[in-house]
Design brief:
Blueprint (H helix, E strand, L loop, with lengths): L29 E3 L2 E3 L4 E4 L2 E4 L5 H19 L10 H16 L3 H4 L9 H23 L7 H8 L4 H18 L2 H15 L11 H11 L26 E3 L4 H11 L5 E11 L2 E7 L7 E8 L6 H19 L5 E6 L2 H8 L7 H16 L3 E6 L7 H16 L10 H22 L4 H6 L17 H12 L5 H4 L19 H7 L4 H8 L7 H6 L1 H14 L10 H6 L1
Parallel strand pairs: 5-10, 6-9, 9-10
Antiparallel strand pairs: 1-2, 3-4, 6-7, 7-8
Length: about 575
């Protein structure tokens, strides 16, 4: 061999699961001519730390170390009373700390793998949850005593377990859509054909384990084999796409349409896709030819197809109609009301519904070979154009009564929708069952609601911190500090009860004037309504800062808070 290798660029690791480590010498070196390679206990490969037992402890340790450094960087951007706004900090966390912590997680996190892995899985989750809780505390300005589950709801952050599930599901979608997946399936069949040995579930590959688990738990609503496949390049570089035209506005699209249909050389063809009664239908028609109509039922909305795919399928049926009818008019203009579908036919990419685009690309040369020219134009929907309104009615009828074409694959976007829906269901279930964060639960029983962040939009960091502390029930009043030994009593100085949030906000006579100044004489007395209202909770935060009861916010310029 004329090739030369640098030994210092290679590492040797004996991968042996923990239960088999006593049967093998994991420190046995590899002897090569003129060189001996000493095995290591772990190695870093493409950003993932592989240890010889494949329990991923080394990788999680590195994740913790890197996250600690990044969290210290997050503290330099904001504190509880100063710095970058809460909504911006969430974006920074998701784009840096969370992305780095969960990098390549489908490889090292395999949930419900079986006996002997449950404890390691739980330990892994706890370590990652600790990272997210600390980040959430820095972002929100809340106390360390605040429950991590409550902070997740307040910041609309997916819990770590659900975030991992979401990323695993999205990875499954990418793998199944790839052309490589067909090769993987062929290899599996070849192995089963020549081997009678059946691997235990614990030794299955991560991909096979995810597939079987998703099918068993009904996390996806169709067999994996029925999902669509995608290719990196749909057409050859020299392929000439159909001409397209999208008018700048609705009136111009109608004007152009009315002018074109007057031309005796033009053959107008109308297509539409419709999502109606949670079902998807598609239709194409040529009004100038009696009976020239095609329509198809593509499946249930979201669970199998989308309106965008139905619009593409309508364009495909329009071309099929031209080949079947062979009209005398040679200038075919296909009118559709979907911008995305028009652009996809002109510039196909690695995208959902690619199998429909591939069929359009295959049939288009056949239409051109018959002497027809093809142009796809946008027509405004529901604008009184007879052909467009007619095909819209046919598409809705197809959604309800149409017959589904054979061998119609399910879109990968449907799989992603199933994953997101199941993750939201799991989060909601865990939030209802959780024993912590019950103060926040009484305010917000529903999770995965981005509207919860509206309270913080444009607000000073101190206001966001006060809102979080009030909504989690962990705020620097005596009712919270006394059990921790940080206050001499839990009673308010007014002598009328415990100094808690409801007492200070609504009933304490010591702050009557300030209360009337901010809220007026007819103040809302329901604490739930106060803390759930975007305007009321902001007023409550300013009120709490002005009372002087919270030493954490005593040095703030209150005029600045009211201006924000």
């Amino acid at each position: 061999m004329s090739s030369s290798f640098a030994p210092d660029k290679f590492d040797l690791v004996h991968f042996v699961p923990g239960r088999y480590r006593t049967r093998f010498d994991i420190n046995k070196p590899l002897h090569l001519p003129g060189h001996t390679v000493i095995p290591k206990q772990g190695v870093r490969y493409l950003g993932v730390y592989l240890d010889s037992a494949l329990n991923w402890n080394k990788h999680i340790e590195r994740v913790q170390a890197d996250a600690t450094q990044l969290l210290s960087g997050l503290t330099s951007l904001a504190g509880s009373t100063w710095g970058t706004r809460l909504t911006s900090l969430i974006k920074i966390y998701r784009g840096t700390i969370l992305a780095k912590a969960l990098f390549c997680c489908p490889v090292w996190y395999i949930p419900n793998r079986g006996e002997g892995y449950a404890r390691a899985e739980q330990a892994m989750i706890r370590k990652l949850e600790a990272i997210q809780k600390e980040a959430a505390r820095i972002i929100s300005g809340g106390f360390r005593r605040a429950a991590g589950s409550a902070l997740n709801v307040e910041l609309n952050l997916l819990p770590i377990k659900q975030e991992l599930e979401k990323r695993i599901g999205m990875t499954l979608g990418r793998m199944v859509a790839s052309p490589v997946y067909n090769t993987i399936c062929e290899i599996r069949k070849g192995i089963r054909a020549i081997s009678s040995y059946r691997l235990r579930p614990q030794l299955h590959s991560p991909l096979l384990h995810i597939e079987r688990r998703y099918q068993a738990e009904r996390r996806i609503q169709c067999p994996v084999a029925e999902l669509e496949r995608k290719v990196p390049f749909v057409a050859e570089p020299w392929w000439v796409p159909p001409a397209i035209h999208i008018a700048p506005d609705r009136p111009q699209s109608i004007t152009e349409h009315n002018e074109l249909v007057q031309d005796p050389r033009v053959l107008p063809v109308y297509t539409d896709g419709s999502g109606y009664k949670k079902r998807v239908g598609s239709a194409a028609t040529i009004p100038l030819i009696p009976g020239a109509l095609k329509k198809a039922f593509l499946g249930c909305l979201v669970s199998k197809h989308s309106v965008y795919a139905a619009e593409l399928y309508g364009i495909l049926m329009a071309l099929q109609l031209v080949l079947e009818q062979l009209p005398s008019r040679k200038e075919v203009i296909i009118f559709t009301d979907n911008h995305a579908a028009i652009k996809s036919t002109h510039r196909p990419r690695y995208q959902n519904g690619q199998y429909i685009i591939c069929q359009i690309i295959r049939i288009l040369p056949e239409v051109l070979a018959k002497g027809y020219s093809v142009q796809i134009r946008w027509i405004s929907a529901h604008s009184g154009v007879t052909g467009n309104e007619c095909v819209d009615a046919h598409a809705k009828d197809a959604a309800v009564h149409g017959q589904q074409p054979h061998e119609l694959p399910t879109l990968i976007s449907a799989l992603k929708a199933w994953v997101r829906r199941r993750v939201a269901i799991d989060w909601s279930r865990d939030w209802h069952k959780d024993n912590t964060g019950r103060t926040t639960y009484r305010l917000t029983k529903l999770v995965n609601k981005p509207e919860i962040l509206y309270k913080h939009l444009g607000e000073h960091k101190a206001i966001s911190a006060l809102i979080t502390q009030m909504r989690t029930g962990k705020i620097g009043l005596r009712s919270f500090l006394y059990p921790l030994g940080l206050a001499p009593t839990s009673q308010c100085d007014c002598g009328r009860g415990v100094q808690d949030l409801l007492h200070v906000l609504v009933t304490c006579p010591s702050h009557r004037e300030l209360r009337n100044e901010l809220f007026g004489p007819s103040m809302e007395t329901d604490l739930v309504r106060i803390l759930n209202g975007n305007w009321l909770v902001r007023k409550a935060a300013i009120f709490m800062a002005k009372t002087g009861l919270l030493r954490q916010f005593s040095g703030l310029d209150l005029a600045v808070l009211e201006e924000h």
